Amino acid sequence: MHDYKPFNSLISNILPQIAYAKHRQLLLITGEQNWCYQQANELLKQLCHPLVKVLSTSGELTDSSWPEHTHQILGQEFQYVIYDGFSGLVPDKFAALSGTVQAGGLFILLLPELADLQHWCDPALETFQSFAQQRQHSYFNQRLAGLLTNNSLLHFSQTEGWQPLPKVSAEAGVLSLTEQQYCVEQIIKTATGRANRPLLISADRGRGKSAALGLAAAKLSDKNIIICSQQFTALHSCFKHFAAERGCHYQAQQKQLANLRYIAPDQLLSEQPQCDVLLVDEAAAIPVPMLIKMLDHYPRIVFASTMIGYEGNGRGYTLRFKRYLEKHYKNIR
């Protein structure tokens, strides 16, 4: 059994490397549940960073939470995240959390030893079984164990210690902002151009959609802008980039900055406040009938979303809503 503290010289050396390369790194900690919790808590103390998210049903992990719905995770940004596999491997939560890691950040995964994972009794397994099914082992976990074994990752094992470290590029990471800048230009065009030409922005998670909304709003200083989303926390990136562009101070709970203000979707439709342009972030999380009502009332509107991480509403957004737009708006972009 290895008693090394996880945050030792190896971690100290690799964190600046992944930050320089803008590389998102997976750190796997495997072993007995209590041992993994001890290592994770020690690591959190050493990292000492405000942008940390811990997903766990256990109160033994510092500042842990276990959101009931996946959309409560989406749209946020964290430097370090921890997923407690002992609370159950839920693919949707797992995938959603991975999309919140900032460039140069760590995704820390707590699991039993990989050799035991294939036959481990996953607490989440019964959630995915149909009536009368009594399967003891998860095929998802079996595949995950194989993928983790065959991939280059940081791995600290209770029985084996540190596994061979992956090589991180020595070159500085370069972020291409060409597509994001194009989105900003299109948002401005929608806000200042002819009415009834809705704009749809779709991209994989972490590509800067919310940031683009904030940057565009900052350039539209003469416009009254409303932004809505199912979760206000998903708009942190938008407001942060808006504040940086406008040179104003932003606190995490502020729902209005200058000419940009947040209103929840249900409040928006009940009160129907006036604005020059409406921005809808994480639109796939909002039921299609509500999106159509927004279109009926607001002539200049931008929808931004990813379909990854959504189920029911997301499929409706992909199929029904896009089809509706194509039928009723010839100039959709």
UniProtKB/TrEMBL annotation:
InterPro entries: P-loop_NTPase, TcmA/NAT10_helicase, TmcA/NAT10/Kre33, TmcA/NAT10_N. The keyword Acyltransferase applies. GO terms for molecular function: 18S rRNA cytidine N-acetyltransferase activity; ATP binding; tRNA binding; tRNA cytidine N4-acetyltransferase activity. Keywords: Acyltransferase, ATP-binding, Nucleotide-binding, Transferase. SUPFAM superfamilies: P-loop containing nucleoside triphosphate hydrolases (SSF52540). The keyword Nucleotide-binding applies. Residues 9-152 form the TmcA/NAT10 N-terminal domain. Gene3D superfamilies: 3.40.50.11040, P-loop containing nucleotide triphosphate hydrolases. Pfam families: NAT10_TcmA_helicase, TmcA_N. Residues 201-330 form the TcmA/NAT10 helicase domain. GO terms for biological process: rRNA acetylation involved in maturation of SSU-rRNA; tRNA acetylation; tRNA wobble cytosine modification. This is Helicase domain-containing protein.
